[in-house]
Amino acid sequence: MRVSAEQQIHIEQLKVFARVGVPQTERASRQRLVLNITLWPARDLRDLQDRIAQTVDYSALCREAKDFLSRHSKTRPTLP
User: Fold this and answer.
1) CA 8 from chain center: how many Å?
2) Any idea where the domains of the chain sit in the sequence?
3) How many CA atoms lie within 13 A of 5 on its CB side?
4) For an engineered disulfide with 11, which of 30, 37, 54, 74 has Cβ 3.0 to 4.6 Å away?
5) Distances in Å between the alpha carbon of 4 and those of 7, 9, 28, 55?
C-alpha cells in the first residue's frame, strides 16, 4: 500500500536522555538525544471514518519511546 505524505504521522524534536555509545566512559552518563519519529498506517487512514478509538495517541507514543530508551539505556551494554 502506498501512503501519501499527509497520511504519515510525524513527531519531531522529541527530546530524551539515554545512555548511548560503546565505551563505558561514554555510557557513564545520560546524553541528550533529539528524536524524529515517522509512522505509516497499516491501512488507509480514510478507512478509520473519524472514529476516535482508532486514532494514534501522540502523547502515549512519546511516553513509550522515552520508556523504551529508559529500559534499554544501561551503563554497560549487553553483548550477544
Assistant:
1) 14
2) 5-71
3) 0
4) 37
5) 5, 11, 42, 17
Output the nine-digit C-alpha cell for 37: 519519529
Residue range 23-29: average pLDDT? 87
Beta bridge partners of 14: 35
**Mean pLDDT, the chain, as a whole number?**
81
Listing DSSP states for 19-74 in one string gives: ---SSHHHHSS-EEEEEEEEE--SS-GGGGTT-GGGS--HHHHHHHHHHHHHHT--
Alpha-carbon distance 42 to 65, whole Å?
19
Considering the entire predicted model, what is its pTM?
A: 0.68
